């Protein structure tokens, strides 16, 4: 059988022990491209992880007493599930009316998207990007672009702070991140950081929203 | 012969030598070079020098170190013991080149072929004798490759010594034959007492002479080929015999610089201009610079 | 992680043959 090598946060290890299927690899939409992508869902803590893969040719693994071709290295990093919910809310938003969430988050191509409905504090999350109405104790949601842009702006600011804290080279010259002198950072202007952070966030939102965010 | 150093690490090269007879630092000496184990597909190749005062060549001849090829293994051992006894007659030194060193030299990215390895080893041993203070005036070498070119290179390297490179030198010059005996004794012993770094379960040392056409050797190679790791390091991976078995029995491996890369058909120039449909947006440079992309399948 | 691709997913006697060294 194929074997995969993953870098995942330590605390996830007992998730797979605590309950059967504690960790599930599922295919969901990539909110930027609309294509499929692999995610990891932690059923215990109801937490979503995106999977990035380091792929370079001519590598393989020795894993204990076996060899595994390909030599791929997978990374699982926590991801804000609101990016995925947003994908469905924007799609439904085109109809311009309030809808119950379980009619919005549906996808015959990626049926596992219903797992997103199990996320804790879902209503709190949704308030960042939707207008809501309550009728007979049932909640109805409608996508709000204004609120979403405000939410995304916060994301960009958090990302700028993280880029600085991690000394990521945002200079316009595309250089390998490994070779740069720290004083380079000071010369990078605030605008470079914002542009870079916008670009990074745009990997998780549709093109149209990315353009709106850029103007915003 | 004490090969304990070799047994500690038989993946590189190790040098052994006798004490230098005092007389060899005073009187002009003749030095012979020869090697053993050039042809076999397994085990080390051993380069040896033997040197003795010109005035004592007759005594060396008297030892009956005739053409070493005509001697049996036990006769060689006996003669070697006698040379060791006669400490003020001959001195010797040898380089044991492990199969791993041979393979990695020949298969390295920059090829270092067997002839160059041989020439450099012989040169190194002659230099070693000079560094030990031996008054070498003549050197006789059994040829490897083209005698003239080899002779010229050695003569350039050691202008103050008379160098003679000749085929079958071990049958012509007793000091070369003595070197050949040292080399063969060392090689036989190294092969016989080979310490496998690989903890082989069904270890059997029944690999015959080690020559590629020896049926025992071929059978042993086939018995011990491992699809991922090839062979134990006793084997010279760069030998055709070994490669033939690997090509048949072992898994394929691709390297960054493996030839297939170059053979890959060059794309038609037009293909660079045809748009390949809506190109999926490239990942952000943060990921590109780190070789990361979204996993779309497991 | 090996700097070459072994084109197989299979058992391999790694403990016996592979002695990592710097």
From TrEMBL, chain B:
Which terms are listed as keywords in the entry? Endonuclease, Hydrolase, Metal-binding, Nuclease
- Entry's cofactor comment: Manganese or magnesium. Binds 1 divalent metal ion per monomer in the absence of substrate. May bind a second metal ion after substrate binding.
- Keyword Nuclease (UniProt): yes
A biological process term (GO) from this entry: mismatch repair
* Needed co-factor(s): Mn(2+); Mg(2+)
SUPFAM superfamilies cross-referenced by the UniProt entry: Ribonuclease H-like
Citing just one GO molecular function, the answer is: metal ion binding
InterPro entries, alphabetized: RNase_H2_suA, RNase_HII/HIII, RNase_HII/HIII_dom, RNase_HII_hlx-loop-hlx_cap_dom, RNaseH-like_sf, RNaseH_sf
GO CC entries: ribonuclease H2 complex
Q: Which reaction does it catalyse?
A: Endonucleolytic cleavage to 5'-phosphomonoester
**Segments for region (Disordered):** 253-279
Q: Does the keyword Metal-binding apply?
A: yes
Annotated EC: 3.1.26.4
One Pfam family cited in the UniProt record for this chain = RNase_HII
- Domain (RNase H type-2): residue spans on this chain: 28-251
The UniProt record gives the binding positions of a divalent metal cation as: 34-35, 142
According to its UniProt entry, what is the function of this protein?
Answer: Endonuclease that specifically degrades the RNA of RNA-DNA hybrids. Catalytic subunit of RNase HII, an endonuclease that specifically degrades the RNA of RNA:DNA hybrids. Participates in DNA replication, possibly by mediating the removal of lagging-strand Okazaki fragment RNA primers during DNA replication. Mediates the excision of single ribonucleotides from DNA:RNA duplexes.
Q: How does it assemble?
A: The RNase H2 complex is a heterotrimer composed of the catalytic subunit RNASEH2A and the non-catalytic subunits RNASEH2B and RNASEH2C.
Give the family, as the similarity comment puts it: Belongs to the RNase HII family. Eukaryotic subfamily.
Protein name per UniProt: Ribonuclease
């Amino acid at each position: 059988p194929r074997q995969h090598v993953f870098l995942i946060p330590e605390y996830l290890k007992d998730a797979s022990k605590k309950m059967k299927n504690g960790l599930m690899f599922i295919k969901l939409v990539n909110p930027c491209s609309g294509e499929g992508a692999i995610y990891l869902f932690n059923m215990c803590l109801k937490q979503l992880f995106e999977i990035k893969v380091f792929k370079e040719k001519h590598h393989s693994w020795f894993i204990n007493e076996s060899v595994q071709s390909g030599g791929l290295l997978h990374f699982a990093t926590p991801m804000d599930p609101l990016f995925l919910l947003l994908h469905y809310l924007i799609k439904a938003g085109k109809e311009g009316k309030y809808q119950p969430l379980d009619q919005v988050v549906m996808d015959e191509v990626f049926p596992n998207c219903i797992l997103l409905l199990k996320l804790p504090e879902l209503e709190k999350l949704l308030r960042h990007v939707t207008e809501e109405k309550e009728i007979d104790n049932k909640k109805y949601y409608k996508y709000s672009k204004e609120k979403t842009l405000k939410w995304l702006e916060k994301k960009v600011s958090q990302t700028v702070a993280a880029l600085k804290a991690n000394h990521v080279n945002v200079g316009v010259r595309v250089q390998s991140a490994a070779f740069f002198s720290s004083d380079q950072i000071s010369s990078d202007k605030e605008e470079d950081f914002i542009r870079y952070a916008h670009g990074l966030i745009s990997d998780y939102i549709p093109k149209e929203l990315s353009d709106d965010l850029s103007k915003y | 012969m004490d090969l304990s150093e070799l047994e500690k690490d038989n993946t590189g090269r190790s040098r052994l030598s006798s004490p230098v007879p005092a007389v060899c630092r005073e009187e002009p000496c003749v030095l012979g070079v020869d090697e053993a184990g050039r042809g076999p597909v397994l085990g080390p190749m051993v380069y040896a020098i033997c040197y003795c005062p010109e005035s004592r060549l007759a005594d060396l001849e008297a030892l009956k170190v005739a053409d070493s090829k005509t001697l049996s293994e036990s006769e060689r051992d006996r003669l070697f013991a006698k040379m060791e006894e006669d400490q003020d007659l001959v001195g010797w030194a040898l380089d044991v080149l492990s199969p791993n060193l041979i393979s990695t030299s020949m298969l390295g990215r920059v090829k270092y072929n067997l002839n160059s390895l041989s020439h450099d080893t012989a040169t190194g041993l002659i230099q070693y004798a000079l560094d030990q203070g031996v008054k070498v005036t003549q050197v006789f070498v059994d040829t490897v490759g083209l005698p003239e070119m080899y002779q010229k290179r050695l003569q350039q390297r050691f202008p103050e010594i008379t160098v003679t490179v000749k085929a079958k030198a071990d049958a012509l010059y007793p000091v070369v034959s003595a070197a050949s005996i040292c080399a063969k004794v060392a090689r036989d012993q190294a092969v016989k007492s080979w310490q496998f770094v690989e903890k082989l379960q069904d270890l059997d040392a029944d690999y015959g002479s080690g020559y590629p056409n020896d049926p025992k050797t071929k059978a042993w190679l086939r018995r011990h080929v491992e699809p991922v790791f090839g062979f134990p390091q006793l084997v010279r991976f760069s030998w055709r015999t070994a490669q033939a078995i690997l090509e048949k029995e072992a898994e394929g491996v691709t390297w960054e610089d493996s030839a297939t890369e170059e053979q890959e058909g060059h794309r038609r120039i037009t293909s660079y201009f045809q748009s390949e449909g809506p190109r999926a947006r490239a990942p952000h440079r943060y990921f590109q610079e780190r070789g990361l992309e979204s996993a779309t399948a497991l | 992680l090996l700097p070459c691709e072994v084109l197989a997913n299979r058992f391999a006697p790694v403990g016996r043959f592979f002695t990592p060294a710097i």
